[in-house]
Amino acid sequence: MxxxxxxxxxxxxxxALSMLPQLIKTxxxxxxxxxxxxxxxxxxxxxxxxxxxxxVREDFPIIVTNSFSFFLNITMIYLxxxxxxxxxxxxxx
Amino acid sequence: MxxxxxxxxxxxxxxALSMLPQLIKTxxxxxxxxxxxxxxxxxxxxxxxxxxxxxVREDFPIIVTNSFSFFLNITMIYLxxxxxxxxxxxxxx
Lengths: 93, 93
What we know:
Helix content of chain A: over 70%
Distance between the termini of chain A: 56 Å
Strand content of chain A: under 5%
Radius of gyration of chain A: 16 Å
CATH topology of chain A: Monooxygenase
Oligomer: homodimer
Number of strands of chain A: 0
CATH architecture of chain A: Up-down Bundle
CATH class of chain A: Mainly Alpha
Largest sheet of chain A: none
Mean pLDDT of chain A: 88
Number of domains of chain A: 1
Shape of chain A: elongated
């Protein structure tokens, strides 16, 4: 692996990992009403096209890191749907 | 511009625009307490490295679209700081 690939993978890991705090925050607070579902869906589409672009350009860092982003994003969409109106079990009465 | 570049720019525009609904939602509701600041900062760092990677690879779509993402992300960080605890002017009493 050369320095260019290391730079690309670091960049991709950071943009992928940027989803993680939101994911953890949502898991912890069991609410995500302020998180835009539209954002997550547009992002998923963009990530999918980046993976396609990576294959066309034979760009290893783009393919690998966006596949990871894809996985995190799908998870976040699931949580957003689950906790849209907060978790009824932890709701303040 | 060839098809590969169009694919890359479309991918980049979508991942950049994925920030827009969150930005509009925050502007409209004047609250962003569920939006993770850590996420925004990690993302900004990742975007910066993507721009560097784009220059090294001489990859035009990566440079252009990530520069746009950079601008949107900076704006979102500003709004997140401004509306962290909701806008006092619209606070329910």
